[in-house]
Amino acid sequence: MCEVREREETGVGQSVPDAVRTRRPGAVPDGAPAGGVPGIRAAGEVGLAAYPLWERVLEQAVREGEAVYYLEMSEVTFVDVAGAGALAAAAGRLGDGRRIVVRRPPPALRRVLETFWPGLAAIEVSMS
Amino acid sequence: MTSTATATATAGPAPGPFVHPALLYRDDQEYLDGTVPFVREGLEAGEPVAVAVPGDRLRLVRDALGADAERVRLLDMREAGRNPGRIIPGVLRAFADGRTAGPRVRIIGEPIWAGRSASEYPACVQHEALINAAFQGRTATILCPYDAARLPAHVLEDACATHPTVIAGGSRRGRDSGTYAPDTAVARYNEPLPPVADAMTFPFTDDSLPDARYAATDDGRRLGLTGVALEDLALATAELTTNSVLHGGGSGVLRVWGEDGRVLCEVRDRGRLTDPLAGRRPASRDQRGGRGLLMVNLLADLVRVHTGDEGTTIRCWFSR
Fold first, then answer.
1. How many domains does chain B have?
2. Which terminus of chain A has a smaller tally of CB atoms within 10 A, N or C?
3. Which range, of A118-122, B107-111, B232-236, averages the lowest pLDDT?
4. Is B242 in contact with A117 (Cβ distance < 8 A)?
């Protein structure tokens, strides 16, 4: 329900439903996060093939204007360093007081964020 | 040692902004004589001081400093500098770039000790040589102790090639090394890394980047990697193979195998690495991209690189 609405709103919701099952590249917008909070749910993985789509997802997060934007990543299996960099750059464009909550990201993303952007207030990593 | 013996200068060179002497010590007393006054001078001048040396040496210096040790950043180089490729970004520049308090930053860095393996040593010499480029124009002194009693003669000769100044144990004065040639040292240890037989071999292009990573992870798991170590292997593989696709001719060959209880991962492509400091510069928070090789240096226990007209090979070691 709200998944469909969110897809329509974002306009980047072309779904690749087999992204996780086949382990093919492409973290894709895969609906809205649970709980009716503003944000998007991604699936698959963020590597070279997925950068354009990932950038659009992040640009959407910046444009939405929400104080807190949820990025549900429990079905994202991998994010490389450039993918983490794009997230950090997007967070840097949010402006005062806004933040992206990254929910259940793959371990590599946390590792890279802690290595290169420790204490970045605009990104909150949530494991719940 | 012949190189220092033939050096004629007795006074040190005019102090430029960056000073990089090797200290050739033969015992604990010479170690303390060469390091402790260096630290105290820095503290007295209000300079930030760090000591990154092997654990046993670290305890020696710390005990001699007494209460002053609390004002010094102390790091066990066996851990912080296990991979020589991460010492510049992760230890030296990480300390120096963050300090603006004093006019000069002082660091004691001991990256080469008796017991460094034959695989590690070329990376150690290249690291020592590249410190000069990485700190060019910076107001810093990095003193590098060498255990002259236990390290072989060729290691001490290399120290003279990678340090403009050499301090003999027991002396407070540095003198020109006489054979300082850091670029030559980097080139000399740009040693070929021939393909290993019996390795898992996976040729890749842009289409098969994820498959290359899965292949590395599957083989790493089979070879005994688990948890964070397996994630490190996956991330390093992704960064190296993606670099090959973007900068190394669009394709490459991944190999994974076990050796001496560790897992090795190697990526070979047709590109040429022209920047010797690639992967050794700290990343600023705002720079876009350019962190892949740095991440690999931070993750792996050892990274070796061979680059030339034929292409580039980057080999990483991961402990189980």
1. 2
2. C
3. A118-122
4. no
B210–A contact, CB cutoff 8 A: yes
For the stretch B190-222, pLDDT in tens is 999 999 999 999 999 999 999 999 999 999 999
* One domain for residues B177 and B205: no
Tell me the residue range of the domain where B274 lies: 200-319
The pLDDT of B230-235, averaged and rounded, is 97
Q: Of A48, A85, A117, which is closest to B242 when you measure between CB atoms? A: A48
Sorted by where each starts, the structural domains of chain A and their CATH numbers stand as: 2-126 (3.30.750.24)
Q: Which residue of chain B is at minimal alpha-carbon distance from A78?
A: B235
Same domain, B122 and B206: no
Confidence (pTM): 0.89
Low-confidence ranges of chain A (pLDDT < 70): 1-29
3-state SS, one letter per residue, for chain B: CHHHHCCCCCCCCCCCCEECEEEEECCHHHHHHHHHHHHHHHHHCCCCEEEEECHHHHHHHHHHHHHHHHHCEEEEHHHHCCCHHHHHHHHHHHHHCCCCCCCCEEEEECCCCCCCCCCCHHHHHHHHHHHHHHCCCCCEEEEEEEECCCCCHHHHHHHHHHCCEEEECCCCCEEECCCCCHHHHHHHCCCCCCCCCCCEEEEEEHHHHHHHHHHHHHHHHHCCCCHHHHHHHHHHHHHHHHHHHHHCCCEEEEEEEEECCEEEEEEEECCCCCCCCCCCCCCCCCCCCCCHHHHHHHHCCEEEEEEECCEEEEEEEEEC
A80 to B242: CB separation less than 8 angstroms, yes or no: yes
Predicted confidence band of residue B245 (pLDDT cuts 50, 70, 90): very high
Contact A78 B206 (CB under 8 A): no
pLDDT of residue B289: 87
